[in-house]
## 1
Amino acid sequence: MKKTVLGLVIVGLLAGCSSEQTKPDTSQADAARAAAAKAAADKAAADAAAKAAAEARAREAALAAQKINPLDDPNNILSQRSVYFAFDKYNVGSEYQPMLQAHAKYIEDHSNAKVQLQGNCDDRGSVEYNLALGQRRADSVRKSLSLLGAPEAQMSSISFGKSKPRAQGENETAWAQNRRTDIVYQSE
Amino acid sequence: MNMRRWLAVWLACLWVLWLVPARAQMTIDITGGAATRIPVAISPFAGAGQDYRTVTDVLAADLLRTGEISMVDVSDIAPPIAEPNDPRFGMARARGADAIVLGHVLPQPDGRLEVRFRLMDAVQQTQLAGYSYTVRPDQLRMVGHHIADIVYEKLTGVPGVFSTHIAYIIQQGSQYRIEIADSDGQNPQTVLKSKEALMSPAWSPDGKYMAYVSFETGRAIVYEQALDTGKRFVLAAFPGSNSAPAWSPDGKRIALVLTRDDGSQLYVMNADGSHLKRLTFGGGIDTEPCWSPDSKTLLFTSARDGTPQVYMMPSDGGNATRLTFDGSYNVSTRWSPDGKSFVFVQRMHGQFHIAVMDMASGQAQVLSSGIDDESPSYAPNGKMILYAAEVNGRGELAVVSSDGETHERLSNAAGLMEQPIWGP
């Protein structure tokens, strides 16, 4: 932000300087030359100012966007992206309702947003059953989002089964971390 | 297990390690065994002043793995007994052998080796079998497996499976590989490498093709690959997930699981990918199809009643019958080659064990005692079951005799092994 302000100040000073260069002159030729020079200088100054202002606006917009992207704001519920499940279960717990509600609204409000629901399992038991279970976990989160208003066309689901564990280790803490569906926005 | 047998196994392992030190080889550990075993003496093979113990060591290790045969040590008899008319022939019988394997190796002018062997009844002193093989020196292990097949069948009446192959997934760092190895885990060959997950390798009944699931495009797609040329094609890439391929024993059809319509459901297609037909409906989880030996019926896993259980249905479609009721997690079933029983994974007290169920009585027997035993499959003769076991957080392969008496582990320092499947 500071940089932008500084940039505007400099542009302002330059514009001021260029206007000071146009002193009245008694000779006609000088007057004409001066008028042409003034016009050229004014145009250059205006162009520079406009360009700088546009750049500043773009930078500001980018910075603002970075700052307030609700998906990345740790204080925003939209930064929560995972639904966790019990062993061999795919029902979405009621504690995830506020989070899913927020995502459903965001998806509905942003028609260009596309999300993939990625289902995962802990590494015990059948590879193929876990692949199917992960699909169920992804689909049940998709269904919840759909019921809360997220358009189906903006959502897809996939299962990685037990092939992509987030946590390593053969204990309940690691397994619980791996039994989940991640809400992944496609631009991410 | 007696000391002598331990020593024999240990020496066999040492020998293998010394023979091919450059390769990351499997190590084999055997425990248990049948109450009564057939005592067999194997006279070490030699020829032209050279030692060809590779053949007899592979043979001895194969026979010991069954748990049905014990070894009578005649390795101290020098030179080894090579012919039945050797006056020392009676020594093997005197040491308790019921049968004796004799043989020798004749180097050929072209560098190949002729391996001659006889299986003798030690009591009657009659010949039970006799064969000759002419092979390259690097094929001596294969000869050992072939002789083991013949000896095993002559002594037990059941065909041997030592010259068959196994396939499995090995994960090494971030790389997945499908490998094929000899039945004892040796001589591994890479079928496919990938940075993304590979799953569910399945043999064609003739052993010439392999189907598998690959995530290389970002989602689960089923491929079919010729094992001799490595050429492959996409078998199923429908929208959603494509998985769990299983060849019918008659080679004509492939059952698989698709999510393209409604949940994970069973489908069947011709082996060339044509004529797709949906078999199950309901939108829940139906997966892991497995064919009966006559190709008419499928066993599969379904969670239609709330927990995953084993079901059976006609392979052309129709009503499904539930077969498992004990416990809340019975999955990954495979039909026995005689069609009379099936092996599956049962979760008990938070642990996953291999179990076998007799189809006539519905009685189940637990065969393994690991923490996380998975992916069981029968040897083609039905006498052994290969599965994946987790040992100290590492994936290893394990073999258990179908009576649960003999256990064997195949570990590989190179990587984590899973999803083994016994092939032709």
Note: The longest strand of chain B covers residues 126-135.
## 2
Amino acid sequence: MFQETQHVKRKKRAERTAQGVFLGMTLCMVLPLIAVVGFLIYKASPVLSIDFIMDAPERGMRAGGIWPAFWGTVCLVFFSVIIAAPVGVLAAVYLHEYAPENWFTRMVNLAVFNLAGVPSIVHALFGLGAFVLFAGLGKSILAASLTLAIMTFPVIIESTKESLAAVPRSFREACWNVGATRWQTIRGVVLPNSTSGILTGIILEVCRAAGETAPIMFTGAVFFKAVQGGDVFAYGPMDQCMALSMHLHTISTQVPGVPEAIPFATAVVLLGTVLVVNATAIVLRVIIRTRKKW
Amino acid sequence: MVATSQNPSKIRIENLGVSYGPDPALRSLSMDIPRNEVFGIIGPAQSGKTTLLKTLNRTIDLVPEASVKGSVYIDDEAVVDAPEPVPAKSLTRHGLRDVCGYRRRIGMVAPLPVGLPMTIYDNVAFAPRQAGVKERGQLDEIVERCLTQAALWDEVKDRLTTLGTKLSGGQQQRLTIARALSHEPEVLCLDEFSIAIDPVTTMRIEDVLRELQSEMTIILVTNLVQQARRLARQTAFILNGELVELDDTEAIFSGEANDPRTNEFVSGIFG
């Protein structure tokens, strides 16, 4: 007959405790998130509607919608991604697949790693100096997007390198053994099997770029620009633009008499945009994973 | 002692030394590998067997810290020719230049089966495609021939579009052999091909090798000394990167080999 000894009892107690602690920590993380989002939506509910996104602001931001800021953010992020993603991914392929192991490669890797940790305000000053003043782009979407791109691409490099490293070396060796060149190996086996990770890394960076205020404040974002609600051709690359994060900052701190719901609704739209992009990343991941081949 | 062979040798290795950083893996190895028969290479772990194969198909070039000295000739054509040690990655400057084209002359089968993450068909068609074969009919023909040669065709002919990685271990190893045959190699190197597969599959592959040896030179690196005995006409015993003995397989396994270490190894006293 099986008897529960002291030792078994202690083991079971430890098991329950461990599980409880882990669950507690998970709740600690999830509950504030739910609380914050719930609070934001509650506060924003009086003005939150599709019209709020599609309309231009009125009466000095005290009424109307946030279309110019919303569309400005979309433009900034779009341009920064089409600049940063190709450069970042291709640089990562070079660093991971081609670069010889020497001091230069190590320096570059170290630089990329450290660049990923530079505060965004520093990137902002760099963007102001390099793109706005030196390159003569002025305060423009292009200058701001370049600044955002500089900020995001070290992280894209790091995440891409990790995805490439996840492809087993034996696959590469099998390709080399049958006489494939490095590029044939990369194109035929390595890239097709790391796309999901690379895309996820890029999209997560898009989300970070969307929320940044500092880098665009000096390089392209303005307090107000007269734009028709719903006008998708409002901005050219050399124009200045409004942006959600900047808009939120100014209407909360600089403009007196803004109804309380408007900044909250702006925050909800910013958060919602990020969540939608994130959800796209997750869906993409799932779709590509189901095709995962080993 | 080098046994004489009725065939002229296919591969000639002279004073080959390979080091990884400061650690030598092969020390001044010389041997002749005869044409169109199975040549066995036995030796304990860390004796340099895999390094030898990597040098033969020049994938040693892709090991950053490796350096190579000595010569390897295939049909009297220099594959490696370095009187002084050179870094493996700059071997292209010492000897043949079209390394990728050369690698297709050597078929390589690794110890663990590697099904590439693509369909069975694409696994076998991969090398021909990279070499420029585009026509569907020709590819179909290659795929069927190689899978048949590797004794896998009957099992997979109705599901060529399923993933190669979904096959069982033994099937994947035969798929690997089919892939190694797909670029019509002159030399087939098998590096301990049976360590991850069951005895029945091993026997089937051994039968395949017996048939293939009339068409190509086969180098069989193995830890199973009996496998070398079953297949190889000549066998080399390598220890710590040095050739201890090379002789007709029966002489190696007779228990009366010239070097006492050979007798100890084949009778299982060490290794």
Note: Residues 136-149 of chain B form the longest helix (14 residues).
